[in-house]
Amino acid sequence: MDQLWFGTDNFMRIISQSDFAAAIANENRTQLNQHGLEDVLDSAFMSPQNKKAIRQVLKVVDDIEQTLGCPPKKVMIEFTRSPDKKKQRTVTRLEKVQQAYKAVADQLAGQSIVSELDQYANTHSKLSDTYYLYFMQLGRDLYSGKPIDIDSPMLDDDHILPRAFMKDNSLDNRALTEKPINNTKAAKFPSKVFGQQKEVTDFWKLLRRCGLMSNIKEKHLYLDPDNVDKWTRRGFINRQLVETSQVIKIVANILKDRYQQSQTEVLEVPARLGTELRECFGWYKVREVNDYHHVFDAYLAAFIGNYLYHRYPKLQPYFVYGNFAELNKAQLKNIKSFNFLYDITDNKRVVKDIETGQTLWDDQIRQQIQHIYEYKYMLTSHEAFTQHKELYGQTIYPRREFKPGTLKAIKQDQPQELYGGYKNLTAAYMCIVKIQARKRKAAEYRVVRVATESLSALQQARRLGVQAYERCLRQELVRNNEILRTNADPNSAPREFEVLLDRVLCHQMIISDGQKYLLGSHAYKVNCMQLVLSNNSMKILSTSIVDLKQMTNEPLVQVYREILDVVNKYFTLYDDNSFRENLNQFFDKFRTLPVTNEYKSSKSGKKLIHRGQLETLTLILRGLHANSDKVQYGDQSTPLGSFQTKYGIKLSKDSVIQYTSPAGLNVRTVKLRDLEQKEAQK
């Protein structure tokens, strides 16, 4: 408070000072020790999803520590985005340019660029990077101020601040210019090459005054590398290395406190650095294909964190949590480049630790990472959980739809045959039962539901003892599962059955009849096989639409053919509902589709005529993904990925229930045959 009152620094700058930051961290650690993790999370201002993510992170760390038998030396934390930003209405690039032109219509009147924008808006709904820069520069070269031809092959998309100085691919650091002019600039700064030309600087001022240039872009154009003050230098370092997300701060604080005795260091790695390496070396990320991109991102975060730690030891206070040392003015002045991965991505030379001589980067390390990227199998795990939601679907169905066992009463004093009721009974978890339908026929093994409405009765019965619980469980199972009764009426006589496993959580992994899947519910299977494609297919799926249309070798057809090869070989689950057969039969029709969607203009807007290969392929990848997505990619009656069984999933006697630890490092399997023997011994 004294510094706020007597000084000129604001609150954020004051608490960023090393003494204040250390005191705040110590106080947070004290609060964590006194109140515990759950109390801290309950009082934290963050979404339930982020709180759940923090709990899962800690479970994964515990699993790894337990497997290794020792605490980790370093923990790298990476979050893919900052969840603390306020949600705002999205304004498209085209709308932004149109609003800017409308605001300065008088200044732009008489210029052909206005009509050119109108013509473009009539035929396109989005602006590419090139067209966005073109219209924001009024159709002129940013470095000369002269008109340019957008269709000319002699145009360059240049980085205003050289890549060797700072890696910034944002539109605020890019300029559309002609190749000869860009060759003149090379790796220099615009202020050195063009900053002395009045015609050029007047053009920059015009763009800034008209709202066509941001404040950041203007600063980049005028930046003099020889006269960068310490605050600007710190800002460049913060932009590249510092993660400001409050979620990361809480996780780092918890981990730092947990491993205080073992002196484990917690490093915060910005996700943008991993993206930079992916773009440089062609390690493509296509989220629709599989979940392995999470695994590879984690590996890149560990590699980058270790690289920065040894390559820039003086900058550790910016990314090592709990290190509050500050760089002095002389140390800041010695930092000439703020692209901290430049030696890897652009210079591509051998990098060694100055103190130890350890190799931090060379071609052998790159090949090792490439080998990991091409892994066909990586450890993945799915959280098994209990459903906590409404008892039924919210729709109240009329009494004319009443049949015994089809509706649940709205209230106890309102019978369904008079007032109607609810359908879609929800399940909290499942049971596995053995049903002896007929004496001379083999027994059936089924997954049946434990309804959410039954939880209260089961909890009360559990307090009364094992026998009371088992009796209550059988009653609830018979009442809520038609397969366990002689007919649909809930009051009908029960069939003969045994409960082999009384608690099976949602997303429990099952291996049965050569199929491997998760239990989405008692009636739904969820695919857990990860689709793995070649690097060439990943490259094609990452290619821009413009480039795809220019290719003549049917690249998307090649990807579809490879998908069929993998599905036909490994995805046995997709024999259900003839999914594999339908995918093979659809191949010929897929070849006839256009690359992108085709629309027809009408009074009500654009109407889809033909779905293109790109969107169709995206839908198919979603249907093959290891999740519960169900998609309609063609004329098939059943959505791809919908594995539904009417009376509960049927299991074979040799089925295996597989339990996996949070990090996927430890696996325990239980055979259904063993459960049956255990039940028989009772």
Walkthrough of the structure:
With about 675 residues, the protein is of the alpha+beta class. It has 4 domains: about 1-85 and about 240-375, no CATH class; about 95-225, no CATH class; about 395-510, no CATH class; about 525-645, no CATH class. It has 30 helices and 21 strands. β5 and β6 (about 360) form a beta hairpin. The chain is globular and about 95 Å long.
Number of strands: 21
Residue share in β-strands:
5-15%
Tally the helices: 30
User: From the structure provided, what is the oligomeric state, counting identical versus distinct chains?
Assistant: single chain
Main sheet strand line-up: 18-15-14-13-20-21
What general form does the structure show?
A: globular
**How many domains, in number, for the residues?**
4
**Radius of gyration, CA atoms, in whole angstroms:** 31 Å
Helix-strand makeup class: alpha+beta
